[in-house]
Design a protein that fits this description.
37% of the residues lie in helices and 20% in strands. The chain is built from 17 helices and 18 strands. The protein has a seven-stranded antiparallel beta sheet with strand order 15-12-14-13-17-18-16, sandwiched between helices. The chain has a five-stranded antiparallel beta sheet with strand order 5-6-10-8-9. A four-stranded mixed beta sheet has the order 1-2-4-3. Helix 1 packs antiparallel against helix 3 and helix 14 runs antiparallel to helix 15. The longest helix has 21 residues. The radius of gyration is 22 Å and the shape is globular. The mean pLDDT is 95. The structure holds flavin-adenine dinucleotide. The site of flavin-adenine dinucleotide has 38 residues, from strand 3, helix 5, strand 10 and helix 13.
């Protein structure tokens, strides 16, 4: 990637930032600096200063000033990312959008909600529900900001039926690296008007612009949802059943998979019982529909197909409590695997028909490299989360085994027609895997785009490309 020399913040720079944002919104020491030096993984780098803008105008002024002084700026939402995207590896300013957290409008005629980018996903879900609507994307971490979801193109558990974040965004207000504010898209349902700059910014991990406002797509709430917990004798059997479900012409909201180990870890972590834990592997399936009949019919088709594909039982969660026990457990998988341990994650996405082969290969890698590997993920959309776990290994042993395991996994993913990340992004830590699996032409085009948006390379330098 092109190099441009950057400056660190001086006392004068801090003073200028205080003039823009106000003294309470500029922090140079203490726990805020520590918090903003990492995300959910182990990479760490300390910023010179953390700023909390309250308006898009302040964001714009900060970018203008940072450009004039060539100070790097790393945008940050809630810091729940999993690949170092929000870690300020070049120092400088961390710009935390969490105080821009207003819901600006729910537009019933156009089925849209307009929000500032620091609003939390849980607030978006609740607001939509309170108005009788669904905001469909459902990534596991509900304390993430909508700006973070947009910038990583977060996926989550309903992506099979409703798509990722990108498929549910209609418009974006973005502050460019030089401080100009632009609006891409709007409330239109369809768009065929030149290059889609909005879609370029979505998933760009804060390297092309700072998202300050978004127009989200709303849907009517489904009339009924039902969940199934389906035990299998092996993880291979469980994931092999998945392509068959689609071939029956039904489209569930979610199909997640997990092995018993992960479920037991989640039970321990939550201090709550999961409805069934004796089988080696499980599918967790949620269906929804416009009527009870439609939902029940889909559930029956899926249940029968699972039994034909080797499931030892099909458990129907037909009360709110039972459904919640399944999905609360699912929501805790990552935290449970990570609890008290160091991990690295392979977020590979594959054609659905290749999931079983990849999961079986991950077990071979575990044996060959001599390291524990646990997996769970979104079986329905081919996005697997494979975790390589340190378990107290000395630093050098851990690094060598982790790097070997990750390289083998990504190589296999590429061979099976997969991509490095299905939803968590590239950030800092997955760059080398992206470079080794995309073509030179693709990487070059990405670099040209980055240069066009950010010729001074001040916005989240060192990330993605
Ligand atoms: C327990 C757990 C479960 C998770 N489950 C899922 C899941 O199911 N699906 C999924 O996709 N992810 C999941 N994640 C990952 C994470 O929650 C998402 O990547 C989320 O989108 C990050 O949002 P954030 O606000 O925390 O962003 P941050 O981590 O703060 O930032 C992420 C990236 O976005 C950039 N950014 C943030 N805000 C802005 C902005 N306003 N403008 C421009 N750039 C910005 C940052 O620079 C960085 O590159 C999970 C994480 C955890 C810890």
């Amino acid at each position: 990637m092109f190099k441009v020399s950057h400056s660190s913040c001086t006392d004068k720079d801090i003073h200028e930032l205080v003039m823009i944002c106000g003294p309470g919104n500029v922090v140079i020491e203490g726990p805020v600096i520590e918090d903003c030096s990492h995300d959910e993984m182990s990479l760490r780098a300390t910023p010179d200063v953390v700023v909390f803008p309250s308006t898009a105008q302040e964001v714009s002024q900060i970018m203008k000033y940072a450009s004039s002084r060539r100070i790097p700026v790393t945008p940050r939402g809630s810091g729940t990312g999993l690949c170092g995207g929000a870690v300020p590896v070049s120092g400088g300013i961390v710009m935390c959008l969490s105080r821009m957290d207003k819901i600006l409008e729910v537009d019933r005629d156009n089925l849209t909600m307009t929000v500032e980018s620091g609003v939390l996903l849980m607030t978006v879900h609740e607001t939509a529900r309170n108005h009788g609507y669904l905001y469909a994307p459902d990534p596991g971490e509900k304390t993430a900001t909508i700006g973070g979801n947009i910038s990583t193109n977060a996926g989550g558990m309903r992506a099979i039926k409703y798509g990722s974040t990108r498929d549910n965004i209609l418009g974006l207000e973005v502050v460019l690296p030089d401080g100009q504010s632009v609006f891409f898209g709007g409330k239109q349902v369809k768009k065929s008007t030149g290059y889609s700059l909005m879609n370029l910014v979505i998933g760009s991990e804060g390297t092309l612009g700072v998202v300050t406002k978004a127009v989200l797509k709303l849907l009517p709430l489904p009339a009924r949802t039902l969940s199934l917990l389906v035990p299998f004798n092996s993880l291979g059997d469980a994931v092999r059943a998945v392509p068959g479900i689609f071939s029956k012409g039904v489209l569930p909201q979610s199909i997640e998979f997990a092995e018993r180990n992960v479920i037991l870890a989640a039970e321990d972590y939550l201090g709550k019982k999961f409805p069934h834990t004796t089988a080696p592997a499980y599918l967790m399936i949620r269906v929804d529909g416009g009527s009870s009949e439609e939902t029940e019919q889909a559930m029956e088709v899926i249940g029968d197909l699972c039994l034909e594909s080797g499931a030892s039982d099909v458990l129907i969660a037909n009360t709110v409590e039972r459904e919640q026990a399944i999905w609360d457990g699912r929501g805790a998988f990552l935290a449970a695997v990570k609890s008290g341990n160091e991990i690295d994650e392979c977020d590979v996405v594959l054609p659905r028909s290749k999931i079983a082969e990849f999961v079986e290969y991950s077990k071979e890698v575990s044996g060959k490299v001599g390291i524990r590997i646990e997996s769970f993920g979104h079986a329905g959309d081919g996005n697997l989360h494979i975790y390589v776990i340190r378990d107290g290994k000395p630093e050098e042993v851990w690094e060598a085994k982790r790097d070997l395991a990750m390289a083998l996994l990504y190589e296999k993913g590429h061979e099976l027609g997969g991509l490095v990340s299905g939803e968590h992004g590239i950030g800092y830590s997955k760059k080398k895997y992206m470079r080794s699996t995309l073509s030179g032409e693709e990487i070059e085009l990405m670099e040209i785009l980055k240069r066009s948006f950010d010729p001074l390379n001040i916005l989240n330098p060192g990330k993605v490309v």
